Amino acid sequence: MALFRTGDSPFLRIRVLAFAALVPIAAAWSSTASHDVDARSATAFGERQLPGLAITVLRGDEVLFAKGYGRVDTARGGTVDGATVFQLGSISKQFLAVLVLSLAEEERLSLDDSVLDHLPDHAQLPPGLTVRHLLNHTSGLRELLTVPEAHAGFDDLTRSRAELVALVRQLPVDFPPGTRWSYSNTNYTLLALIVEQVTREPYEDALAERFFRPLQLSSMRQCLSRPRPPADAVGHEWHEGGNVEAAAENMNWIRGDGGLCGSAIDVARWTRLLATGRVVPAAVYEGMTAPTQLLGGSLAEYGFGLSLVDLEGRQRVGHNGAMRGFSATAAYYPDAAITIVVLANRGDVRTESIERPIARQLLGLPEARVREAPLSPEQRHRYLGEYDIGIFDVQVLERDGQLWLEMPRPGPTTSLTHLGNHTFAGDADPDAYSVTFDGTDGAAQSLRLLMGGMRWHGLRSVGDEPVATPEDDSRTR
């Protein structure tokens, strides 16, 4: 196996997967299983009417399945294959997290450093806010994507990184650091700035020097605002019954929190290398994939740039990515050494709902089935109300005797099917959305929401209690 140094990193050497070809199929892999993965993937591609889709599956270090479906660009053609480059969205966060952890191993920073020590001109930040709070999304920093001024910067390709930084300096902190978990892209925007202060180079250059070139991840790089087909997939949106090219986004404003591009095969290789101690030492990865403990003692199912939400009791480490025109999922199942990467060149696609059925097949889990459990009007009534999940409030309301979950975009609005034990599947996509309420008597005071491949914890908004009578099944809010 090829051996490489990682620049000035103290890690002695990094072992690289020896792939004889881009997509060799392991001899031991069952042809029936391979056919089933292909059939599932082709069905998902067709049912969702995607422009293009790439899927790679590894078992251990072996490529078990790698295939592309559809077009790089619906207007100009080009076939998706294993080498096609997609925008990865928030899958990018784990790369930056690993870079931060590497710098911490070198003692060039500490996870317990005050962010103000590195970014003293961000005077709105509390002194107790640390690098660790940014990594695990417990900072309380306002989510950049909820700020209207930010969207103008994403749309205007001439807007500079300095203008983004100026906007971030104005964002408030919504809760004391460490007290709760709430996903915020702003955290990783700041982490990229910290890395650039420490290394004195653009964060993508540091990633290339330390990881991408040594690990031979040749497709990995900071995205261009305008893709260059045929190697780069073109992003699409669903509009009036068809796939149309998505507007370009300003990559000067998407750095650290997203912004990286790569192929399905390279993302899969990275995922496996990282999980097996060949990027950072095993102890560092173990810390990266430990649940986050909040000050009140509760745990959040999130580490550093990685979600830890399991699949029906099987340990899963992964992340989703969402960009304008692109959707992505990368997942690793440690007990089976299975890696699955799904990349699509259309936005607002729940790619985890393509990945999870493949995982169930490979892990020997039963097919997911939604079976409705009876729910009386009185029982429905206790769940109604508004819940604060940090990034925004979500509403649970009733329409014609059925519960609905409502929230601002990019969250879903979906009817809910009761599965029993205070748990509901989101009918819009049961593999992507589910809600579990607390089982206390009276009005539910909290919920756990599966969304975006992450578990959000919400508390009933102060003063918000169900007010309609239980007998009234027609109420809405």
UniProtKB/TrEMBL annotation:
Residues 1-20 form the signal peptide. It comes from the Bacteria. Pfam families: Beta-lactamase (PF00144). Gene3D superfamilies: DD-peptidase/beta-lactamase superfamily. Keywords: Signal. Residues 46-351 form the Beta-lactamase-related domain. This is Beta-lactamase family protein. It comes from Alkalisalibacterium limincola. The lineage of its organism: Bacteria, Pseudomonadati, Pseudomonadota, Gammaproteobacteria, Lysobacterales.
